[in-house]
Amino acid sequence: MLKKESIFITVFVLLTMLLCVPSGSAVFSEHHPNMQLRIMETTDLHSYILNYEYKSGKKVKSFGFVKTVSLIKKARLERHNTLLFDNGDLIQGSALGDYIHEHPGLPHPIISIMNELQYDAAAAGNHEFNYGLGYLNKKLKEAAFPYVNSNLFIQGTESFQEELPYFSPYVILHRNFTADDGRKYPVKIGVIGFITPVVLKWDEEHLKGKLSNKSMVESAEHYIPIMREKGADVIIALAHAGLEADEQVKDKSRNSVLGLSKVPGIDAIMFGHTHQVFPSPKLRDSSGLIDSEAGTINGIPAVQAGSWGSHLGIIDFSLALDEGKWKVVSAHSEVRPVFLPDTPGLSGGIENDQRAEQLAEEIHTKTKKHK
């Protein structure tokens, strides 16, 4: 009898100890789940919503946002956790973009499509400024997602503490994502934007006396530690700039994606501007920092998704929970084309998304008649 009572008391004590453990303390700290996160990029769409070349008046297979939308929807079905970003040069570049500018009361269908897709954030490109700040501000108000840029400022002061950024420098997205154990966990994703400073020269007629800039690297070095202090688990840079700086930029080493890759604290770089594709085996690297096979720049996973909706950029992360913080364990970058000749499954091109076509068709038809 004494033996049975001893066993009963031991079990009772153990159960009491377990029930008294606060949620999220010792028992939780021994649990180290992993999580898969996919981030996706469009860039340099230039208002080519339909797969249509306005100059020739012909449909095409190799570009068009209506095709990229199909890739986005398919890529989302492959992962529990996804985020979607755009890297600028959105509202200008095609006859459709010009038509909407000439009829300023019209909402921009490309932004309407992006709102339906629930984009998480975007960065402005240099061509966003071609029609002036007034028009840009009106169009960005249509977006249901935040725009970020950390190196453009309202002109008039000279320090980060005093200067007023023209956009929000960064945003920290609070998401509840599903880990490999099937449970949901809070994750903080920091998103920071950059732009080639040559925009101030190219659109001087609109921007002179209104905006000033700092280098991309200087802005990154200032804001990224702040983002970490505010709890960002993962930091994604949206850079509307090329691997190398533009020719007209004086401080080249601090205004390129190569320069940005050397700033501590960045977990991924999504870039655009030069209409190239990365990773790509065709890329020639003289810096020694680029691994096209791994899709990294100076060890940082990176992606560039071409132009006009020709590709979707994807970076897949594996994250691990370490002392209450999610950290990147590994990553893989890829670009998915909407068309590749002589490739099984892509020789005919990706099918257009019907809903995106529907949202753009009326203005597309008016644009063709207007021409």
UniProtKB/TrEMBL annotation:
Keywords assigned: Hydrolase, Multifunctional enzyme, Nucleotide-binding
Pfam families per the UniProt record, alphabetical: Metallophos
Reaction equations catalysed: a ribonucleoside 3'-phosphate + H2O = a ribonucleoside + phosphate; a nucleoside 2',3'-cyclic phosphate + H2O = a nucleoside 3'-phosphate + H(+)
GO biological process: nucleotide catabolic process
SUPFAM superfamilies, sorted: Metallo-dependent phosphatases
Gene Ontology MF, one: nucleotide binding
Keyword check for Cell membrane: no
Compartments it resides in: Cell envelope
InterPro entries the record matches: 5'-Nucleotdase_CS, 5_nucleotidase/apyrase, Calcineurin-like_PHP, CpdB_N, Metallo-depent_PP-like
Cofactor requirements of the protein: a divalent metal cation
All copies of domain Calcineurin-like phosphoesterase, residue ranges: 37-276
GO CC, alphabetical: outer membrane-bounded periplasmic space
CDD domains in UniProt: MPP_CpdB_N
Protein family: Belongs to the 5'-nucleotidase family.
Name recorded for this polypeptide: Calcineurin-like phosphoesterase domain-containing protein
Lineage: Bacteria, Bacillati, Bacillota, Bacilli, Bacillales
